[in-house]
Each structure stands twice: as C-alpha cells, then as structure tokens.
Amino acid sequence: MTAVPRPEGMRVVHLPARTPYAWKxxxxxxxxxxGTEIPSGDTVPAAVNAAWLLDHGPLTWLDVLHLHHIDFEDxxxxxxxxxxxxxxxxxxxxxxxxxxxxVGNAEDFTARLRMLHSAEVSWVCLTEGSVTTLAEILGGRxxxxxxxxxxxxxxxxxxxxxxxxxxxxxxxxxxxASRASRDQLSTMANWSLGITDPHSSLHVLLxxxxxxxxxxxxxxxxxxxxxxxxxxxxxxxxxxxxDEEVVRAGLASDALLLPYLWGSHxxxxxxxxxxxxxxxxxxxGHLSEQYERHKGFVEEPxxxxxxxxxxxxxxxxxxxxxxxxxxxxxxxxxxxxxxxxDYRAQEHRTILSQYAHVYGGDQ
Length: 363
What we know:
38% helix, 6-stranded parallel sheet, 363 residues, alpha/beta, globular
C-alpha cells in the first residue's frame, strides 16, 4: 500500500475558511490546513477561531495564520494568539476585507485594527481605496500589499456550463445572510411592487435563520410575510449555502441584487462578473474600484447611490436602478463570457504569486 504524500509548501490556517476567497488560495507553494487532521489527531475547523488555536498549541504545526474576519474575536484572546504566533515563528497575515464593521460597533472594530497595526502582522488590502480609508482610521498608512479579490466561481468549473434557458422575462437573485449592512426587506418589497411583469421572478437564497432574526427588531418575520404575498418570489433556505448551490442559483438568473446600506468590498459583485449577471448594486465602499479593475471585460453594474442623500431616498434610487436594469436585461441574452474566464484564470495565477510572496516574504 502506497502512502499518500504530504502536501509540500507552507502550511496555512485561515481564520475563518468558509468562503471561496480563502479556499482558492492554494498552490505548490502553500496549502490549507483547515479541514485536515493535525499531529494531535484533531481536525482544524473550517470556521476556526482564536480560542481553538490557543487550545491546540504550541503552534508548531502551521507556518502561516491568515486572518480574514475578526469581528467575533475577543480582543484579549486575539492578542494572546498574536503572541503565540510570534513565539513560534508563525507568520500572521491579515486581509482587511472590511473598513467598517459588519457586526458590533466601530469602537471595537477599530481597536482590533489598531492591535493588528501595532503587531508584526502583514496586511493585504483588496483595493487602493481601502488602504486610504484604513489610514484615516488608524492614523497611519498600513504597509499593505494590494491584492484583488479575484474570482468566486473557479473559471475551470464554469468552462463547460451555461446559463439555464428561460423565457424572455428577467430572473433576479438575492442571496446571503440577513445582515444590517444590506436591506433585503425593502428590496423584496420594492421588487414585488415595482416589477410588474407577471413572468419575472425573484429567487432569494437565504442562510438559515438564527434567534436574532426573530428577536426585537429582527427582520425574519417581515421577510417571510413579504415573500408570501407574491408568488413570483421563491425563498430557498440552506444551513450555509454551498458554493455549488450559489453558482447554480446564479446560472438560473439574469441579475443579482446587491442592496448594501454600507460595505467595503463585495465577493457577490465578483461572482456577478464571473457569471455575467447584471449587478443592481449600491455604490458603497470600494465597489466601484472593484469594477474599474475589470472595465472592458465586464458590463458596468446598474449602480444606485443614496449615501449622500436622505436615507428615505434609498427606495427611490433602488427602484430607478431596478427599472433601468429591467430595460438592459431585455436587450440581449446573457451568456458566460469565455474571454473573461480566461482573464480570471490569469488573474488568479498572479494572485497566488502575490500571496506566495506575502506568506514567505517580508511584507
């Protein structure tokens, strides 16, 4: 019986590793330990946290700790983890996906950023604009590598696929967890009352609800009630939608609704580019810079910007964008673009090369 050879290269733990963004960062130079067994016999969770890592020290079984979303980490525990990494020669890399907290308050979020800024941590930012924003928050510019988000759906996985055929009526998709940063509820109501085509459809792919979704101020009950009034709206609930489930939903749609109230970067926007979906997207954070990077390869999103106006203008501007998108969708069929997928593959090779430098170099 031949033993399976161990992967070579640097051993990386992502905190957490539940998204395509993390899982695609593998090459001959580095591989991911999440989901694999370590010498103690334990398996590193996909959604590993700082406390689990501290409980499985000394951290001699990894070379790189790649931090992504730290909103849920206790400050003291995170500080201890950084010390443990320093003591055992573990390189710590932090990708600043957000410049504003997705959960919690701005004060706690800023405290975490400042802790990382003062530690021996290598920073990665997705856009140049986010570095400027972080400099304002931190009072100093972080020494950060600028590495773009890249694909969400692997180009090779889309090579032999095509969009599910439909009638001439547009199919809309909205997916993800119910977060304060995106308004699924008013979006659903505006779509239902504003899109009058009886053959159009809206598929809402949701992550499983939690008690917070039904507590005081929770959106769960109203979300369900709104969907119940329009048979064109289909709700699908999954524990945690898999990458394949999301791609299938995208291939059965024509437009992706991105109703951000705030946000820094968007993996969903990158997915829309992968699948040639028309994004109907709030002009927030650095999303326009994400588009500008691919300008000429992808269609410009149908933007709506309410950030400088009264909050009550959100619905007005969103519905205007939705009407514009409906007109754009009726103009031509939307197929996957082979040229863009080739471009994505090349972009990914560059991204892996950049991360090999960050993981192993002195960024």
